[in-house]
Amino acid sequence: MQAVRPASERVTDGAPEVSASRAPSAFCHIALDNMSLNRPSLWILDAGLQHTRRTMRILVTGGAGFIGSEYVRRRLASDPTARITVLDKLTYSGVEANLASVAEHPGHTFVRGDICDPDVVGQVMAGQDAVVHFAAESHVDRSIDGAGAFVRTNVTGTQVLLDAAHRHRVGRFVHVSTDEVYGSIGEGSWTEECPLAPNSPYSASKAGSDLLALAYHRTHGLDVVVTRCTNNYGPHQFPEKVVPLFITRLIDGRTVPLYGDGRNVRDWLHVSDHCRGIDLVLHGGRAGQVYHIGGGTELTNHKLTGLLLDAVGADWDRVEHVADRKGHDLRYSLDDRKIREQLGYAPRMEFAEGLAATVSWYRAHRSWWEPLVERAGLR
After folding, report:
1. Does residue 279 carry a catalytic annotation?
2. pTM for the full predicted model
3. Per mean pLDDT, which range of 64-68, 143-147, 270-274 is the poorest?
4. What backbone phi and psi angles, to 5 degrees, belong to 292?
5. How many other CB atoms are there within 10 angstroms of residue 363's CB atom?
6. CATH number, domain containing residue 160
7. pLDDT at residue number 340
């Protein structure tokens, strides 16, 4: 395990020195500082009925990835007193440079390690108040050709984290998941009570991890909440995903692939809105519950392609129609009324604005994405 940590923390034998001791308490719950969801703290009511307040310590798995790094940057910017430990293996899609802007933040600790390693996980879990679990293998096409890595990371890795969270009495475990666990829907939208029917090895592994997380709540009483989101887009997304793949290829003057007839429908969610939704669930979600986080912008892949062409300034002759993906789900759609009504969530980023900003970011950050394109063999 390799770590870079704040200067204020002592290091012993190459691992963070973290106390596992906990304040004696009758109960512990998350409260809001000055009624703001952006400045969380823990109020602890001890056996003597005396209140104390302290900064929340959060373990963020997969924090060097696209969504995880957005969450870390956002959290540290909104709460300078926050203490966040990032655990990331830095596989092909984990980019430590995503955290460059917070590398010297006194509340940020980076640990390079595998969520499937119980020793590493046990060390970083000690002393944490909450876990926000992003770490996952997440590319459908890769799962079709190699499901083993997805089962290992998404199921076994989640189980290792849950065991450690239970053992160290972590106050809350937010398990971040996907709408793909439901399979495909022709009309209407899935509610949180709909049965799971995944169609790809990736979505099956995520469904398994969702069920495992909820089982730890029912079996062990672990304070677990599960979020399921629609398709994310925004800065720092690894260029194998459709939005950055199309943007980077079009910027380079290359063609882009459109699966089948392009009628597949996805709802698009800006990563900043997703992370706000996760924070709302972290602070206000009910234990053992599932919450949907949607973007409110359903588009066919054909329509999305046209918008991307317009945003970059390219023509349809740059589009190459290719054979459809195996088991390609036709449509995903989440009913997110629960998080809207119970926690006050609503997406803020209009898709046109978010897409334009995303294109501008990739234009300005070729030095970030070009090495990743080469490394992933996306040329």
Report:
1. no
2. 0.85
3. 143-147
4. -90, 140
5. 12
6. 3.40.50.720
7. 99
User: 192 an active-site residue?
Assistant: no
Find the catalytic residue in 182, 202, 291, 362. Answer: 202
Is residue 376, in this structure, part of any structural domain at all? no
Question: Which pLDDT does position 371 carry in this prediction?
Answer: 95
User: Does residue 202 carry a catalytic annotation?
Assistant: yes
Name the catalytic one among 180, 223, 279, 329.
180
Dihedral sign, CA of 149, 173, 273, 196? positive
Q: What pLDDT does 54 receive?
A: 61
Domain assignment present for residue 245? The answer is no
Q: How many domains does the chain have?
A: 1
User: What value does the mean pLDDT take over residues 218-235?
Assistant: 98
For residue 214, the tally of other CB atoms under 10 A from its CB is 18
H or E element at residue 57: strand 57-61
Tokens found for residue 140: 């459908």
Q: Point out the catalytic residue in the list 79, 88, 114, 179.
A: 179
Is residue 317, in this structure, part of any structural domain at all?
A: no
Range of the domain at 125: 2-238+269-297+330-352
- Return the top range by mean pLDDT from 8-17, 73-82, 347-356: 347-356
